[in-house]
Amino acid sequence: MNEIPKKLQYFIEIAPYLIKLHSSDIAIAIVDREKYVGFFRGKEIDFPVRPGDRVKEETLAYKCMQQNKLLSNKVGREVFGFPYIGIATPIHEDNRVVGAVVFLESIKKQDEFMQMAEVLYTGISELQAASQQISAEAENLSSIGSGLGGLSRQALDHANKSSDITLIIKQIAQQTNLLGLNAAIEAARSGDAGRGFSVVAEEIRKLSTSTKESVENIEKIVEAIKITYGDIAKKTEQIDITSDEQVSAIQEVNAAIQSLFTLAEQLRMKAESLSQKD
Fold first, then answer.
1. I need a labelling partner for 123 at 20 to 30 A (CA). Which of 71, 160, 183, 246 fits?
2. What is the distance between the alpha carbons of residues 139 and 120, in angstroms, rounded to a whole number?
3. Residue ranges of the domains in the chain?
4. Residue 278 has pLDDT above 50, yes or no
5. Exposed e or buried b per residue across 252-272, where buried means at least 16 C-beta atoms within 10 angstroms of its C-beta
6. pTM of the model
């Protein structure tokens, strides 16, 4: 049986104390050039190796001895069910590599932190996309409200112009009625010779009366239309104001979400840096 080099023996003796002094959950493996000569598990972190097991070529301990330098490596939870970082350094005696010491540090908490940061980042990204869509729809609604307001004002202008037209027709009816009255007077003066003219005069007066009644009905309808379009104009103006307020509020929400997005990105990067070693 080969004697364990003194420096490796020192690490075997102090390894339990190093584990207790370390704030993180760590395990320590000590190897000579061929095999594990000591392994000290952490609170949860453990590996399927024991003293006497041969050191495999793919391990960090073997590689650090071969390259004669400190090496580190991050391993995901897919290997042993938990993520960890391994740091291995060669041990020298009489100017030659006699073995290596490997510190295995669990980064389970950092990994969970990283996952939470990723979930937060993804959630805020989706919220940002949804907010941007709502903002675009609100701006579109505001544009539609403005367009409706313009159309309602145009319709009200047309209704007002209709009132001008009915006024002209009313004046024509009054003139026609006056003309019929004058014609009736002249027919009466003409006696029998003016009977035919009297019939025409009567028809003119009936037309005037009928036109006047129609104009009055049109005026009532136009007035009702004006009131309706006036109400529509007020409502669309309120919609326009509300839409503008919504756009402003959504823009403020977007700004807040952007700030959260930036913080989530910083948190994600911080979490990623915590789970790595230089």
1. 246
2. 28
3. 6-106, 112-274
4. no
5. eebeebeebbeebeebbeebe
6. 0.48
Q: Where are the alpha helices (DSSP H) in the chain?
A: 6-21, 60-67, 77-80, 108-190, 195-274
Fold of the CATH domain 112-274: Helix Hairpins (1.10.287)
Find all residues with CB under 8 Å of 50, minimum gap 6, and list them: 36, 39
Cβ neighbors of 271 (< 8 A, separation 6 or more) are 110, 113, 114, 116, 117, 118
Listed in sequence order, the residues at least 6 apart from 275 whose beta carbon sits closer than 8 Å to its beta carbon are 74, 83, 85, 107, 110, 111, 113, 114
Q: Which amino acid is at 82?
A: F
CATH for the 6-106 domain, from 1.20.1250.20, 3.30.450.20, 3.40.50.620, 3.30.70.100 = 3.30.450.20
Q: Which residue has the tokens 């510190």?
A: 103
Q: Is 67 helix (H, G, I), strand (E, B) or coil?
A: helix
Structure tokens at 173: 């009816």
Instruction: Name the DSSP letter for residue 140.
Output: H
Give residue 196's pLDDT: 66
